[in-house]
Amino acid sequence: MELDKMDENDWKYHGEGNKSLVVSHVQISRVLRLLKYPAEDSENPPQTAEQAFRQIQNIVDFSSNVMSSLLGEKFIHSGEVVKLPLEFVRQLSIKVQHQRPAWRCDKVMDIYSGCALCLPNLTCPALHQPTHTPPLCIEIKPKCGFLPSSKHVSKDIKTKVCRFCMHQHYKVANGKWKSRSLYCPLDLFSGNRQRMHFAIRHLIEEPQNNFKIFKGGQCIYSSKEGSDDSLDLNSLLHHLRPYFMYGNNRINSHMTGKAVLNDFIQVLVNALLSGGGGDGGLVTDRRGEGRSFCEASLFNKERIRHGSQGLPSDTVLFRILQTQMLDTLDIEGLHPLYRRVEQHLQDFPKERTHHQIDGPYNEAFMEKLQKCPTDDDGSVEYAVAKVHQYRVAMTAKDCSIMVALVPSNEEKEDDEGLSSQRRLRDFLSSRPPAFSYSVSILDLDPKPFDSIPRQLRLDQRIVSCYLRTGGALPKGSLPPLPGIFTAAEREDCTLLFHPV
Questions:
Q1: Which of 391, 398, 388, 267 is nearest to 320 (CA)?
Q2: Quick one: DSSP state of residue 135?
Q3: Cα torsion through 320, 321, 326, 331, rounded to 10
Q4: Structure letter (DSSP) for residue 158
Q5: Whole-model pTM?
Q6: 267/376 Cα distance (integer angstroms)
Q7: Which of 63, 271, 343, 423 is deepest in the core (most CB within 10 A)?
């Protein structure tokens, strides 16, 4: 990529979040992440080019020095900061504007600094050969996978119903989504195949912002916030069917919709449970029965017929969960420590740099994180370390997993590909096809120190909404499931007669 010969026509709109907009190259497997500002700041950028560069460099450093050592280098792509020609950025902004969702247009792309984060395009992995069947990529935002047990938790419901399930009621009550997702993160993080299958099925039924499927780099399945568009399962089945044409539960090449979806989920569960090498033995759930089951999950515990609770220690889910559990105090226990640090910084503003509140995210930061005493000694150092741990845990609670799948019958046996490339084979008698795969973790930006009071207010609103409604949905909201799986299962009722 020659930075002095950048052409906006080589790039297309890829997606955006709250703080950045992403474009992808039409030929090479690269994306650019550009910062966004509130629209009212479009004429006067809120920071200089140097500050924008430092902000993006902080993201790279946090990912490569902090999250990489906690989550495992094999899962992380930190990228690099690039300085782009300003005219290219301006033209790119004009080009992508009409493709952006209307509800995202309260913010504009940074066209002043020329700074961007360059990353590999994980929706179109390098192990794919362009002439073959396009790879499938599944993006999952798993959210928090455990229940808090901190003595600081003031409402008992938080130790029984997970944050995600409570938040769903709050989002529906506030009109963000028309119907709630029945996905529960504790099922996905359980390590039990049945519960994981159950969790992914509900992600497909109500994806919201937590589930997307890409084919050859194009998003073919997702929910659009604020949109009335219904999900098209038939279209998804049309895309998935060619990948699952071989196996035992087929009749003369006819494959039921239910079988396609089951095979797809099975392969995805296999990818999530496969480690990146080493002898990652099964780590049983030492958090106790209570913290691994959410009372709001529709999964019936009695259904678990075989398989243990717990994740192999070299899996992506295990590493994410361990990092999430750096939040040992819950936001209610952490907030007083945040206030201690805040008061100290008001009295001694220059100490902000010493305590690395805004970075740099280097070895010294990791040392503060890891050498935190177990008990509160009343010091500012203890409070700073716990705040840093909480911020890292929040990043892990908000990250995304990208699973890239390529049918391995299309790849050479000795293809080196990516380091985590593996052959996936199901353990059941009816095997779906084998896939080569890569697993990556995205969205590893540091959470701002100053966002902690807002986190406490949101937590209080979510819990009070859930207690007020008793876990019931507000009147007028849609039923939780339109039953898109039911439509797929109806196909199974069709009798097929063939000459003997």
A1: 398
A2: P
A3: 110
A4: G
A5: 0.87
A6: 45
A7: 63
